[in-house]
């Protein structure tokens, strides 16, 4: 039996699980939502990041609780519909225990993380947040006392607000070394 340091992993969506086919890790992924012609179906312009599917399947084998927290600027019901559409498009539904569209302010993911941990009775030291953006993913998790990892990208290197972040991964499957 495998001893796990983590019982629950929170994931960001854009830039962590999928990214725009055209720019991949070169530009922040949210540009795609303002691109003319993508309003009705963003998924056509997105691709799943390599190692996502195998990593999520492995986490389910390890019985790790998985939660998707994706920030959307839309009203809550519309944001939930958008994230559910992406999950269905990439056929990831069975690999997530919970899926939430978080609100468009930096602390929102931290608030969701704290609420979910409390509801599930999971200690903070058994949780991990995986994302691609310091302000939207890493810092909100750290602010509520949860460990976090950032996926390395060209845009992440330029968007650290002067912080030297040592907890990074090159590809999603690298999280298996942290659980």
UniProtKB/TrEMBL annotation:
Concerning SUPFAM superfamilies, the annotation shows:
HAD-like
TM annotation in the entry: none
Which is one GO molecular function term here? Answer: hydrolase activity
Q: Which UniProt keywords apply?
A: Hydrolase
Q: Which InterPro entries match?
A: HAD-like_sf (IPR036412), HAD_2 (IPR041492), HAD_sf (IPR023214), S-2-haloacid_dehalogenase (IPR051540)
Q: What is this protein called?
A: HAD family hydrolase
